[in-house]
Amino acid sequence: MQGRFCICVSLNLLSQYCKHLDQQQKRGVKPVMPSSLQILPGDDQGLSCAADILREGGLVAFPTETVYGLGADARNDHAVARIFDAKGRPRFNPLIVHVHDAEMAKLYVEWSDTADRLASAFWPGPMTLVLPLRAGTGLSPLVTAELPTLAVRVPAHPVGQALLRAFNGPVAAPSANPSGRISPTSADHVMAGLEGSIDAVVDGGTCDVGLESTILGLTDAPTLLRPGGLPHEAVETALGQPLAQHGDTDAISAPGQLASHYAPGAAVRLNAETRRSGEHLLGFGKVDCDLNLSEAGDLIEAAANLFGHLHSLDNMGAEVIAVSPIPDMGLGRAINDRLRRAAAPRDV
User: How far apart are CA 89 and CA 343, in angstroms?
Assistant: First the structure.
């Protein structure tokens, strides 16, 4: 990472640029983001600069424990609109607001005892809560897609946490990739998909969890709106009750519910016991394959490898990616959710 950063921008230039931002802000001038400033380190100086870019209405990709997010000031209509434009994301698809702790989340949503119990158990971490939007928050209506609810999360990645604290405000952040395509688990994945459309990437290494957050609806009975990096069984244990389920034909109420999503350039065939002619096989367990999610059959390892391996198979030029069967339990449920959406018919 250090070598790539030195190629993109020297530490001296970074320091000069951050001072320039401060001077421009004091004079009331909106600075232009330099195209050469594309990768920032996850240290204090890099994070300070990234926070300044967010304050000026820029787009900053940053690491979370799940995937890299594409962040903008959630109160800035223009900045949030740039997220949709950069990703090619449909405007009816709401965004998750990231904050550094539960106390800040309470500024934007109507909190509840259930939210408090779940936040105490799983935040910071790969869980998003959808709650009624509090009145007068100042958030852009684009964030909620004009729904009466807001999705909020407190990520656990130390670099993502440090950026949120440096910015000290709500950051709207979907995954940092073109809409409908494979989610990014490294800064390289972000650059491959969005270079030229965003202002900066904070390089925090590879994401540990590798799947987007589990989304829970709390406007009525606790409902699983999207399986993700927190197994639903753990949530049910914490609540002492089963979760209601969001149906595939229900209206979109949270990110990640589009039928076709997370897709590589190649077609995807699921539950493949063998590799057909011309296919690349993404394996699970002890199987002869091109890449293996987890030879040991470990669902945690498989989740962490899923998007990275799909990116790699795309880069190999695969026309069809066949995928071994994945157990539909624990994190396997979220893995299968992503794979089904990746294999779904796509708009052309």
Answer: 19
Do 325 and 340 contact (CB within 8 A), yes or no?
A: no
For the chain, how many structural domains are there in total? 2
* Joined tokens for residue 202: 């904070």
Structure tokens at 22: 């401060």
- The pLDDT tens digits of the residues spanning 266-305 come to 999 999 999 999 999 999 999 999 999 999 999 999 999 9
- Whether 215 maps to a domain, the answer reads yes
The residue ranking higher by pLDDT, 29 or 112, is 112
Token pair in block for residue 232: 């639903």
Compute how many other C-beta atoms are within 10 angstroms of the C-beta atom of residue 71. Answer: 31
Q: Is 300 helix (H, G, I), strand (E, B) or coil?
A: helix
Burial class (CB in 10 A: 0-12, 13-18, 19+), 84: middle
Neighbours of 148 (CB within 10 A): 8
Contact partners, residue 26, CB within 8 Å, separation at least 6: none
pLDDT in tens, 59-93: 999 999 999 999 999 999 999 999 999 999 988 88
Kindly state whether residues 163 and 278 are assigned to the same domain. Answer: no
Helix axes 299-315, 331-343, angle to 10 degrees: 20
pLDDT reported for residue 146: 87
Residue 286: which domain range? 267-343
**Alpha-carbon distance 331 to 320, whole Å?**
24
Where residue 125 falls (left for φ over 0; alpha for ψ -120 to 50; beta otherwise) is left
pTM of the predicted protein model: 0.86
* Same-domain pairing of 286 and 208: no
Query: Is 236 part of a structural domain of the chain?
Result: yes
Task: Pick the last residue of a domain from 245, 279, 311.
Answer: 245
